[in-house]
Design brief:
heterodimer, A: alpha+beta, 5-stranded mixed sheet, 5 helices, B: alpha+beta, 5-stranded antiparallel sheet, 4-stranded antiparallel sheet, 31% helix
Chain lengths: 175, 256
């Protein structure tokens, strides 16, 4: 089966009913989608499937054969963050960081779908299935609203990825 | 053992591959099945994936509304039928609703600790009929009969209900979240030929409440259903609130 992940075409050999989450993490070493509850309840595994946010833990590989997948890594890099990523950084919207990948992916899709400023209620509705157990919701919602309005300062002094990070992690990823 | 995956391209092909259902695991939206697979509690050997089967259409043919089995809860939430839209939009969140399907909701076995399948209530109220395939071929039956039968050996192809003049009402007791099913749901629909009332969330499946349909006395709902204890609520609590929800749903209907 084939997936295009963050623009790179990949031939994958995981079993057909493996979750997309496991394919990304275990076979492709893309670790921003987190294996949280693995029951569809926490939202941190959310990725874009053909541009639409989906829970990767609930998505069997065989159902997305040939699809284009975008994870947090595909949205931006430490040296060139996306607007939503930069807004999360500017506004301290990540605390422990475990929910952040799903939050940013879902928020990015919301802002693209709306095509303009999003209101508080819309953010709460769109992120309603995403749990932040640090309970940093206020800053998260603020960051998404700011990103949708382009109210984001440039991020210039983000520390470089720590070379001591284990290889399995994507350098600079928020976990 | 390696899993064999079957990906039918049409409804007919899906029905043929399903056969009598023996040894087949149907995979639609995955929202109920995948957690079981992820946890190693279910290990399918032959999986029938419906995502390319063309069973997701929602259409009105003459005076009948037809909804395919793989129509998503998101599509129902955005649809024109008010009762279905209300119940569908109260399930989990957008990302789950985008995957979850009508057929999965009807076929969901009771969970380990709570009942499931909220859409049963509005579909009972609408007088829906379920079209399914399995041993003996295809058949269409009232949804309350389908839900009361052995659902695991049937492949749901879709549901249909008569369009036309009707008034509806609903009342629910629930918390909306992927892990939180409802405590009790009541849906009512009145057409020129009578009133229909569906209740879900209080037992293994949705049921039709014929006694209260006839009497219109909310307390009679307790003669139609036997609420159960589960992780969300006690049977005693459900017995307290169910007549109240019936009253609210009927009151709403009267305002239409």
């Amino acid at each position: 089966m084939r997936l295009t992940v963050n623009g790179i075409e990949q031939e994958v050999s995981s079993p057909p009913l493996a979750s997309l989450l496991n394919v990304l993490r275990e076979e492709l070493d893309i670790t921003s989608p987190k294996a949280g509850c693995q029951q569809g309840g926490c939202g941190t595994c959310t990725v874009l499937v053909d541009g639409v946010p989906r829970r990767s833990c609930l998505t069997p590989l065989a159902a997305v054969d040939g699809a284009a997948i975008t994870t947090l890594e595909g949205l931006g890099e430490p040296e060139g963050m996306s607007v939503v990523q930069a807004a999360f950084h500017n506004r301290y919207a990540a605390q422990c960081g475990f929910c952040t990948p799903g939050m940013i992916v879902a928020a990015t899709a919301l802002i693209e779908r709306k095509g303009g400023p999003v209101e508080r209620e819309e953010v709460i509705e769109a992120l309603g299935g995403h749990y932040c157990r640090c309970t940093g919701y206020v800053k998260i919602v603020d960051a998404v609203m700011a990103a949708s309005r382009g109210q984001v300062a440039a991020v210039e002094d983000l520390p470089a990825a720590d070379e001591s990070e284990p290889d399995v992690l994507v350098k600079g990823s928020p976990a | 053992m390696a899993v064999e995956t079957l990906v039918p391209a049409t409804a007919d092909e899906a029905a043929t591959l399903f056969g009598d259902g023996e040894g087949i695991t149907v995979v639609a939206g995955g929202t109920i099945l995948m957690p079981l697979i992820n946890a190693g509690q279910v290990a399918p050997t032959r999986a029938l994936l419906l995502h390319h089967s063309g069973l997701d259409a929602i259409e009105t043919v003459g005076a009948v509304v037809r909804i395919g089995a793989t129509a998503t809860l998101e599509a129902l939430a955005a649809g024109s039928e008010e009762l279905l839209a209300r119940f569908a939009s109260e399930v989990a969140d957008g990302e789950v609703r985008r995957a979850a399907t009508l057929g999965g909701n009807l076929c969901a076995p009771p969970g380990a600790v709570v009942s499931r399948g909220d859409l049963g209530a509005p579909l009972v109220a609408l007088g829906a009929r379920v079209r399914s395939s399995g041993a003996g071929g295809e058949r269409t039956e009232p949804i309350e009969d389908f839900l009361a039968g052995s659902r695991s050996d049937r492949l749901v192809l879709g549901v249909e209900y008569d369009d036309g003049e009707r008034r509806v009402g609903a009342a629910t007791m629930r918390r909306r979240h992927a892990h939180s099913y409802s405590i009790a749901n009541v849906a009512v629909c009145e057409r020129p030929d009578g009133l229909r009332i569906g209740v879900s969330g209080v037992g293994a499946t949705a049921v039709r409440c014929r006694r209260v349909e006839t009497s219109r006395e909310p307390v009679d709902v307790l003669r139609d259903v036997e609420p159960v204890d589960d992780a969300l609520a006690t049977a005693a609590y459900r017995r307290e609130i169910l007549p109240l929800l019936v009253r609210r749903a009927l009151d709403e209907l009267e305002t239409r």
